[in-house]
Amino acid sequence: WLLTAARETLNRGERSLAIFEVGRVFAANGEEIDEAPRLAVVLGGQTEGDRPVDVGDLKGKLATTMDRTGFEAVSWTRGGAPWLDETEGAVLAIDGEVVGCAGLLDAALGERWELRQPVYVAELDLAAAPASPPVVSFKALPRFPAVTADMTVEHDADLPYANLHQTVTELAGSDVESVDLVDRYT
Predict the structure, then answer these.
(1) Fewest Cβ atoms nearer than 10 Å: which of 43, 114, 135, 166?
(2) What's the pLDDT at 55?
(3) How high is the mean pLDDT of the chain?
(4) Residue spans of alpha helices (H) in 47-181
(5) How far is CA 56 from its chain centroid?
């Protein structure tokens, strides 16, 4: 359904597209039928800055969603065939258990769905999220202003960001409040 909506929207001249759907997916498991809640996302067209949507935009939207729903650190590793492009597709996992996939829709599938431009898609198993989302808490503003520092880390291209984030956070110490990815240069 989402790819049909993307085709109709983008092929009629809409400049940008960001749609999602939450629903149940049914799959045969031997004699039984498994039913799991899933989140599906489709992005395409241009961003507000008039640049083409890319995998970073998709990853950012998924990261925000996963943070707000309490997902643990999710690792992204290349994969997702045959639905996703080899170079821009990823399998999402928590502790080695696959919880979804995300990336550029394979060009052959895009042609089959009559999409005139690339679209980025994702599917996330919502059953992998904790039973209750994290409670939002507030704290008093600090007495002194914050100091923001940039750090560049050179690493192998196949190092999952979750591993890098965990290591940097552990090494940072108690004075560091947060560690965030700003850009990835390849």
Answers:
(1) 135
(2) 92
(3) 87
(4) 55-69, 107-112, 161-172
(5) 8
> Nearest-CA neighbor of 110 among 82, 132, 133, 72?
82
* Amino acid 137: pLDDT: 76
Query: Can you tell me the distance from the alpha carbon of 166 to that of 55, in angstroms, rounded to the nearest whole number?
Result: 22
| All residues at 6 or more sequence positions from 18 whose CB lies less than 8 Å from its CB, including other chains | 41, 42, 43, 61
User: How far is the C-alpha of 37 from the C-alpha of 22, rounded, in Å?
Assistant: 7
User: What backbone phi and psi angles, to 5 degrees, belong to 62?
Assistant: -65, -40
| Tokens of residue 69, six digits | 């729903």
* Tokens at 160, concatenated: 């999952």
Confidence of residue 70 (pLDDT cuts 50, 70, 90): confident
pLDDT in tens, 113-143: 998 889 999 999 988 887 776 677 778 887 8
Q: What are phi and psi of 170, to 5 degrees?
A: -65, -40
pTM here?
0.69
